[in-house]
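Incident log, structure service

09:12 report received: a user says their structure output differs between two submissions of the same chain.
09:20 pulled the input from the user's history:
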Amino acid sequence: MASIQLLPDLAEIIAAFKPGDLSPERKNILQPLIDYILNKRNANQEVHLNFICTHNSRRSQLAQIWAQTAADYYHIPVHCSSGGTEVTTFNPIAVGTIIGDGFSVTRIGGDNPVYSIQHSPDSKPIRAYSKLFDDIVNQATQFAAIMTCSQADENCPFIPGAEVRIPVWYDDPKEFDATPLEKIKYEERSNQIGTEMFYVFSKVADGLPHDPDRG
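09:34 re-ran on a clean worker, output below:
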């Protein structure tokens, strides 16, 4: 199968990622996620990842979007979702960041807007909006709970239905809201998450038996 046709600006961003430059510490943090996906795929089981942060507003949304993009890029069937322990909104600054990264984003109104996000012209849209981790649209059982913030990880010790809980913490760009560093810090966090998700799925692709359909 040929590589997906990424949107041009997004392709440039991804081409600049340097997954090999991740620190040994970050690689060790990501290894349980790689192992989980590999074990599920090698057992011919569906893979469901739920990225969880307190407000499902910034880090968990970015992680869902980048993980799904990386999975699609490597032709690895994975269902990525996200949720929180509280419902707020998908933060507008974070939305602007993914637009700046080159994703196609369409807003569907409301007080808690739903965003339809695509990484390529023909890709299935990612529906992104703030919701609880156990929202009806998310997989209820046999999923990995990926904890993207320390607050949710520490305050929500039990995730019903999760097969495994994997902490992959990211610093919150919210700390820089309304400061001169706001834009660059959101971009840094998005690029960090994107780089790490592409590292994860490149390792998954390397670890799976060769499949001619994946190209």
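09:41 both user submissions now match this output. Likely a transient worker issue. Closing.
09:42 reviewer note: Residues 29-171+180-206 form a domain with the Rossmann fold fold (CATH 3.40.50.2300). The longest strand covers residues 162-167.
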